[in-house]
Every structure is written in C-alpha cells, then in structure tokens.
Write a structure and sequence with these properties.
Layout: E1 2-3, E2 6-7, H1 11-20, H2 23-37, H3 44-57, H4 65-77, H5 84-95, H6 98-104, H7 110-124
Helix pairs in contact: 1-2, 1-3, 2-4, 3-4, 3-5, 4-5, 4-7, 6-7
C-alpha cells in the first residue's frame, strides 16, 4: 500500500489519531492524511482509507468531523492520471457515501452541516475522466 510519499504503514495510526485524539492530535493526524491521501493525488491507500473516513465523519465523538468531510471532498476532487483505475475506485468510494453526506448536511453542528452540504454539492456535480459512464 502506498500514499503520496511511499509506504502507507502509518495511515492506520493517523486514522486512529483522528478517531480518538484530542483537537490538536486529530488536526495533526488529519493534516498528514490530507497530504498523503488526497491533496496531491489519490493512491491505493486512499481507496482503503475512505470507508474509515466515512465512519469518522458520522461519529459524533470525533473532534474534527468537518475536517474529515473536507478530506473526503478533496479526495473526490483529485486525480491520478497515471493510475486511472485507482482514481476511479477512490472516487467511487466517496461517491458511494452520498447517503451519509445527506445525513451530515443536516447535522446539528453548523460547521459539520456546512461541510456536509459542500460535499453533497461536490458529489452531485462530480465529473471526471475516470468516472464518466462508458
């Protein structure tokens, strides 16, 4: 498994940091995940992480749910042209969470709600080379 900078061995630990960490730990872990999984391009580690990111986004005890939602949107917006199949599967993993995005768009937390609405819009308007219907 790889991410933007090589081995993805540290990804599970960072996901745990988001899940269980205080605000500072969660923000740091989320920053690393953003750099590794979505800001430059999407990778096979991105594909594996997306289901966990969806779980974190809808878990009330996670301190930075809006940041997780924003990372999901970032993943949807980035590509990996040399690895179009990986891009397709990563995007599909985000797109398949549309019903969860709807729930987040109605969340009681205004910041989560706003991030959820933005993600719904991104999902509904998503068009890319790898995701076009054949």
């Amino acid at each position: 498994m790889t991410h933007a900078y090589g081995s993805a061995a540290e990804v599970p630990g960072r996901l745990s940091g988001v899940a269980w960490g205080d605000a500072r730990t969660s923000a740091s872990a989320l920053s690393d995940l953003g750099l590794w999984l979505g800001e430059l391009a999407v990778f096979d580690a991105t594909v594996e992480a997306v289901p966990f990111l969806w779980d974190l986004a809808v878990t009330d005890s996670v301190t930075n749910r809006s940041g997780v939602i924003e990372l999901l949107q970032t993943i949807l917006e980035h590509a990996n042209p040399p690895r179009i199949a990986v891009q397709y599967v990563a995007h599909r993993a985000v797109l398949d969470g549309r019903s969860r995005a709807d729930v987040l768009a109605r969340d009681a937390d205004a910041v989560v709600q706003a991030a959820g609405r933005n993600l719904v819009i991104a999902i509904d308007s998503h068009v890319c080379e790898s995701c076009r219907p054949a």
